[in-house]
Amino acid sequence: MARWIVTGAPGAGKTTVLRELAARGHDVVPEAATDVIAREQAAGNPEPWTADAFVDRVLALQQARQQPDPPPGHNRLFDRSPVCTHALAVYLGRPLPPALTAELERIVDTRTYRREVFLIRPIGFVTRTAARRIDYRASLDFERVHRDSYRHFGFHLIDVPPAPAPTRADLIAGALARAAR
User: What is the tens place of the pLDDT at every residue in 78-132?
Assistant: First the structure.
């Protein structure tokens, strides 16, 4: 299986690490929620995460980005997954949409992603953006929900501790190389 998930608390540096890996030639799939938020904000909705359909929109984009399969022997790194969307729904206190429940069952049953998931650990602060309006304390709570969701669905978390992005990218690249042997 060549699909790897990279997850973590908002503001932990996940996307920065993935940009570093992409610059080194790794195949990286961007985060769906950030793109959904950007698209909706550009259309005039300043807080798209408050819409009932937000979780469904994120999931739909994640599903589209799962295709096509990576070539044999080729790693693809996903900035979040439907398990993160589960964590998002739980964190927001929203009921799980039927499409999300079905997708979670499918990805677990078919082992769509590697069972090992890279968890980018918090760096001690959060830089707020138009899409990220969470404070550091809340980001830690959100990270806990992510950990719980991944464990619930049978994934094993690999901690990527706070460090400069190149060091974190080295850790992930090393794990990918070891898994390929």
Answer: 999 999 999 999 998 999 999 999 999 999 999 999 999 999 999 988 877 767 7
Written as one letter, the residue type at 119 is: L
- Residue pair 79/58 in contact (Cβ under 8 Å)? The answer is no
Answer whether 46's CB lies under 8 Å from 85's CB. no
DSSP for 20-74 reads HHHHTT-EEEPPHHHHHHHHHHHTT-S-GGGSTTHHHHHHHHHHHHT-SPPPTT-
Distances (CA, A) of 120 to 70, 78, 93, 146: 23, 13, 24, 11
pTM summary value? 0.92
- Taking the CA atoms of 122, 17, 39 and 106 in sequence, report the sign of the dihedral they define: negative
Distance CA 165, CA 9 (A): 15
* Token reading at 80: 């979040």
Instruction: State the DSSP string of 125-136.
Output: -----SS----H
Q: At what angle do helices 82-92 and 136-152 cross, to 10 degrees?
A: 120
Strands 116-120 and 156-160: parallel
For residue 75, give the amino acid letter: N
